[in-house]
Amino acid sequence: MPAVLEFEAITKEYRSPFRRRTLRALDGFTLRVEAGEIFGFLGPNGAGKTTAIHLAMGFMRASSGFGRMLNRPFGDPTARRRVGFLAENVALYHRPATRLVRFYGGLNGMGGRYLRARTREVLERVHLGAQAGRNVGKFSRGMLQRVGLAQALVNDPDLLILDEPTSALDPESRVSVRELLLDFRAHGKTVFLSSHLLSEVELVCDRVAVLHRGRIARMGRTTELLESRDESQVVARNIAPADFPGAQAQNGSVTFSVLASAQRATLERIWALGGEVLSVNPRRRSLEEVFLEVTSDKSQAPS
Ligand SMILES: Nc1ncnc2c1ncn2[C@@H]1O[C@H](COP(=O)(O)OP(=O)(O)OP(=O)(O)O)[C@@H](O)[C@H]1O
Ligand SMILES: [Mg+2]
Questions:
Q1: CB–CB of 51/45 below 8 Å?
Q2: Which residues fall within 8 angstroms of residue 174, CB to CB, at 6 or more apart?
Q3: Contact 287/208 with Cβ under 8 angstroms?
Q4: How many Å apart are CA 52 and CA 31, to the nearest integer?
Q5: Using a 6 Å CB cutoff, which residues line ligand 1?
Q6: Is the pLDDT of residue 301 over 60?
Q7: What pLDDT is attached to residue 17?
Q8: How far is CA 38 from CA 145, 179, 194, 243, 266, in A?
């Protein structure tokens, strides 16, 4: 099956007209997003995420390399109509929410009764039904982000591209956006999500890529990235936490991490002390740990 979004060895350089300098925002960037997945696109400030998204949307052209969105070259207007896009800085015209969402539907070739019904539906979906008549110029940041999401959904897209969609949302709205994305995926659709909210990403994304200085520094299935290959978590009982460094007692059992190389010896020690091993599992790391590891410059140095 062809990829839904494909970046092939893309380099993007920004030229400064005054200083004769170029800034390489993307550097041989290659990535494939498959149909039906929620893909998390991470990276520190300035890594090149928005640049990559703007190239895919056809707002500007790559310096070199090639990309496809929904099997069409970047910038193709027919592919664009099947995409919902929420920009990083939601800048919307000052109009009532309903008119604004309808306007974006119109840009995607929609109209008539269907567009009116669909507009109502998406505004309800982001819990702005009661505010639909209000001018978005008076909206709070979180409400703006929600109306931005509504305009991204109005054309019932096959691919949603979201650049920081939940940064201003309160916890309740975040949960509801999470549900919305999962529901979207359940319909076989694809989400490409750039976010700094790693706990959110961890919860919804099937795969993630970490961009660092215009290149992919790490990519994989979320569950696999979060499993530490060299550390396990041991849960045991009938042992004293003080006998094992870093161990914590909880509900009658004792939990601690152990390096793979020391695992066997540790288990034998538990048994020798008359304890019982309840479980040994790869230690789950947080996405934040993975992120910091691959984006810190220490990751380049030999350890
Ligand atoms: N229009 C532009 N002209 C010149 N340089 C730019 C332009 N847009 C982005 N850049 C530069 O390109 C690099 C990548 O920026 P980009 O906005 O893609 O990063 P990002 O990963 O989206 O960061 P953030 O997490 O802060 O949103 C940065 O060094 C930025 O200064
Ligand atoms: Mg950005």
A1: no
A2: 166, 197, 200
A3: yes
A4: 10
A5: 14, 23, 25, 43, 45-51, 88
A6: no
A7: 76
A8: 19, 12, 11, 43, 39
Whether 105 and 154 have beta carbons less than 8 Å apart is answered as: yes
Query: Of the ligands numbered here, which is closest to the C-alpha atom of 54?
Result: 1
Domains in the chain, CATH or no CATH each: 5-224 (3.40.50.300), 228-300 (3.30.70)
Burial of residue 193, with CB atoms counted within 10 A of its CB: 0-12 exposed, 13-18 middle, 19 or more buried:
buried
User: Which residues in the chain belong to E strands, given as ranges?
Assistant: 5-15, 22-33, 38-42, 64-69, 72-73, 83-86, 159-163, 190-194, 207-212, 215-221, 227-237, 248-250, 253-259, 276-284
Q: Give me the half-sphere count of Cα atoms (radius 13 Å) on the Cβ side of residue 287.
A: 25
127-155 burial: b if 16+ Cβ within 10 Å, else e: ebeebbeeebeebeeebbbbbbbbbbbbb
Mean pLDDT of the residues in the chain: 91
Take atom 1 of ligand 1 and give the residue whose Cα is closest: 14
* Closest of 148, 212, 141 to residue 170, by C-alpha: 141
Q: Out of 7, 50, 89, give the residue to mutate to test ligand 1, the one with the largest number of ligand atoms within 8 Å of its CB.
A: 50
pLDDT in tens, 190-205: 999 999 999 889 999 9
Residues 282, 230: Cα–Cα separation, whole Å: 8
Quick check: 298 pLDDT over 70? no
Whole-structure pTM over 0.90, yes or no? no
- 228: region left, alpha or beta (phi > 0 left; psi from -120 to 50 alpha): beta
Q: What is the pLDDT of residue 303?
A: 32
Q: From CA 291, how far away is CA 198, in angstroms rounded?
A: 9
What pLDDT digit, counting tens, does each position of 142-175 carry?
999 999 999 999 999 999 999 988 888 888 889 9
What local confidence, expressed as pLDDT, does residue 167 receive?
Answer: 85
Residue identifier of the C-alpha nearest atom 24 of ligand 1: 45
The type of residue at 267 is: L
